[in-house]
Amino acid sequence: MKKAKKSELRYNEDDERTLLEDILGFIKVFVVSAIVILLFVNFVAHPVRVDGRSMYPTLKDGEFGFTNVGGVLLNGVKRGDIVVVTMEEKGQKTHWVKRVIGMPGDTISCVNDIVFINGKVLDETQYIDPDYRQSCVDQFGYFNKVPNADNTDVQDFEEVKLGDDEYYVMGDNRPYSKDSRYVGPVKKSQLFAKKMLVLLPISDIGVKD
């Protein structure tokens, strides 16, 4: 049997070394990519799919996009912001997309489907179509009538004084929204993200805030 030449042995060793380097390179790229994706999803943007009609017509059922996770921490929260709220239902964490209506220290109430903040009417015309509001009043009797888990209706509510770390959130589509009228105020720590960049369907692409 002929012995392999040194040049052939060197070639095989170099070939194996190159293959190993390629594998290690692939693993490094995979790990780095995974870390970048995790950082992006947890600290920059988080994917969200709208489930239900609670934010209609601002957000429609089935729309998909990303929310700004760092927005709450960096820019704070103001009245009228669309936020993603972390809630716990049946022992599991879930996310609700709602709008901030009441801020810490506010006194909020609702009379004849009109929201009052510190005794003054809250202007909601920027995100609630008056015609849509009227159609809900005609159909349900009240714009903010919400069927809840007990099969009772949450309509108007008396004054609620918010604490230093409490926010009152509501859906734009009041007849179909389970929100602070049912579960009470939420804490700032529950405000997971704000705004939403809708990507799908393509016809609805845009920032909703």
From TrEMBL:
It comes from Holdemanella biformis. This is Signal peptidase I. It holds the Pfam family Peptidase_S26. Residues 25-198 form the Peptidase S26 domain. Its EC number is 3.4.21.89. It is an enzyme of class 3 (hydrolase). One of its GO terms (biological process) is signal peptide processing. One of its GO terms (cellular component) is plasma membrane. Belongs to the peptidase S26 family. It comes from the Bacteria. It is a single-pass type II membrane protein. InterPro entries: LexA/Signal_pep-like_sf (IPR036286), Pept_S26A_signal_pept_1 (IPR000223), Pept_S26A_signal_pept_1_CS (IPR019758), Peptidase_S26 (IPR019533). The chain crosses the membrane at residues 23-45. GO terms for molecular function: serine-type endopeptidase activity; signal peptidase activity. The keyword Phosphoprotein does not apply. It catalyses: Cleavage of hydrophobic, N-terminal signal or leader sequences from secreted and periplasmic proteins. The active site is at residues 54, 98. It is found in: Cell membrane; Membrane. The keyword Hydrolase applies. Keywords: Hydrolase, Membrane, Protease, Transmembrane, Transmembrane helix.
